[in-house]
Design goal:
The protein has 3 helices and 10 strands; from the N terminus they run H-H-E-H-E-E-E-E-E-E-E-E-E. Strands 1-2-3-4-5-6-7-10 form an 8-stranded antiparallel beta barrel. A two-stranded antiparallel sheet has the order 8-9. Strand 3 and strand 4 form a beta hairpin. The radius of gyration is 19 Å and the shape is elongated.
Length: about 230
């Protein structure tokens, strides 16, 4: 039998108790402010709040050598859409996202959840190809705020590619779905023997473990600036 030797704590409580959270947020907020200024803030813009759900998992070595299961999550934040012309717009966002995955923790088919709390900054190019229906794609920077497993090898920053579709139901409400394809490994080479005993692959180092997740969202535009 093999077991997990990691301290567990609910990530929401860890998030509340972190004294250095302001330091961790500085780069992300500064990046977003500078980007908004660069796209000429104050003209042809829509500002909205967004909330939704997600389903995430991990791939690569982590998925090949461990029994990985996806888990549901949630997200919320703000979006700013700046029109470039009748067809194209650019959309930076600032999101809080709670996601993760489950993996087998013993031989009796029980699972341990690795819950991850991120700040996500997607920067998307949006193309309106028919009335009220748009395609969006771009990049996303994610910063890990906290996790419920004490894994020192976990990377704090992740880069991803994003692609999705969205539809305006009316002037205020938009719905959409996206697929996020992680480019950065969640971990930097985990020796499985650190976390398991009597595991068949315990000498194997997991070096490739990008995340993947599907998200669905609803956006409410509360401010329009012409």
């Amino acid at each position: 039998m093999y077991s997990l030797n990691a301290k567990k704590q609910h990530p929401v409580f860890l998030f509340i108790n972190q004294s250095n959270m302001k330091t961790r947020l500085t780069l992300q907020v500064l990046f977003l402010i500078l980007f908004i200024h660069h796209i000429n803030y104050g003209q042809n813009m829509q500002i909205g709040i967004v909330a939704g759900g997600s389903f995430s998992t991990a791939r690569g070595d982590l998925g090949r050598y461990l029994d990985i299961k996806g888990v549901p999550g949630f997200l919320s934040g703000v979006q700013i859409e700046k029109s470039l012309n009748d067809k194209f717009s650019i959309q930076p966002e600032l999101l809080i996202s709670y996601r993760g995955y489950r993996f087998a923790s013993d031989m009796y088919n029980t699972y341990t959840r690795n819950s991850l709390l991120y700040i996500d900054i997607p920067v998307l190019l949006k193309y309106k190809f028919v009335e009220n229906l748009s395609f969006e794609g771009g990049i996303q920077l994610s910063h890990l705020l906290t996790t419920n497993l004490n894994i020192n090898e976990q990377n704090l920053y992740n880069f991803s590619l994003v692609a999705g579709v969205s539809s305006m139901l009316n002037e205020k409400i938009e719905v959409g779905a996206r697929y996020v394809f992680g480019l950065t490994n969640l971990y930097s080479q985990i020796d499985i023997s650190h976390y398991y005993t009597d595991f068949p692959m315990r000498s194997r180092e997991i070096s490739t473990s990008p995340e993947r997740f599907l998200m669905f969202f609803v956006r409410y535009n509360f401010l329009s600036i012409e």
